[in-house]
Description:
Blueprint: H1 17-23, E1 31-34, H2 35-43, E2 54-58, H3 62-68, E3 74-79, E4 82-85, E5 98-102, E6 111-119, E7 122-124, E8 132-134, E9 139-141, E10 147-149, H4 151-158, H5 164-173, H6 179-192, H7 198-201
Amino acid sequence: MTGREPTNLGDWSPLSPRQAARAMATFVGPWWIAGGCAIELFIGREIRAHGDIDIEVLRRDQSALRNALSGGWDLWIASGGHLSPWEDGANIPDEANDVWCRNDPAGPWRFEVVLAASDGDRWLYRRDPSVSRPLTEIGFGTTDGIPCLRPEMVLLFKAKDTRHKDEQDFEAAVPLMDEAARMWLRQALVQAHPGHPWIVRL
């Protein structure tokens, strides 16, 4: 895997999923590897280079996240193409959904935390909260114990503004998904993204 190309927000050199799991070792709450890395952990092989690595946590657990990453991580809130420091004790604004993390203020970004909406024991799709699922059903664990989002959850998020890499992930994951996962994704797309081209392919 290679790092993301430099941007005006800084360079990336992403952690591996195992390294990311170590970074989250003291976090008290559920979390999952998300994005393309979760797809690869599901299918059991690499399919493309990754410019970053995403970890999903529930927005309601942001204080626990801040505590877990308070030692040794430089944390910035990403929103609207801009970064602002995540000050100790501050809440992340409702319009912001991402936290970028690096070891060193002068170093590259190492992982991104994505904040997920929830209601009680249910995960909510933030682009259409009427699409939901029990928290107990959104993830799976690798053989070495790394929690990951299920591929249908990842692909739902990727459905908006689909890019070439998202098509690669769809083509790699769908043949290995069981019927229940494919049907859940199809219904979620019909509800949240009607007319999406993936619907007829599921």
